[in-house]
Amino acid sequence: AADPRGASSSSGVVVQVREKKGPLRAAIPYMPFPVAVICLFLNTFVPGLGTFVSAFTVLCGARTDLPDRHVCCVFWLNIAAALIQVLTAIVMVGWVMSIFWGMDMVILASYKEQGIPQQL
What we know:
Helix content is 57%, strand content 0%. By secondary structure, it is mainly alpha-helical. The chain has a domain at 32-109. It is globular. The chain crosses the membrane at residues 33-62, 74-101.
């Protein structure tokens, strides 16, 4: 059966979209799911605290999307993100950023648990 638009029904195009992450976003560690949920909870009620805690998981071996960076550099990037969240929480920007950061931690942890490749 021919397609009225002139395209064959078996032809298809596969498009792959890859998210380009900045250094702060790429420094979010892939943590175990329960730890990520705790960090989300902390970030929700005390902006930046969950991000601060997640920085120490990098020192404990958690992987990130910055494999070419030294562990200490990734640790300090996470500390910087926590400080940004704390300092801008006064104008609500840091609080919202902190919650989204925690949600990203949980999403990355779920990818890790499901075995989905890190580069999505």
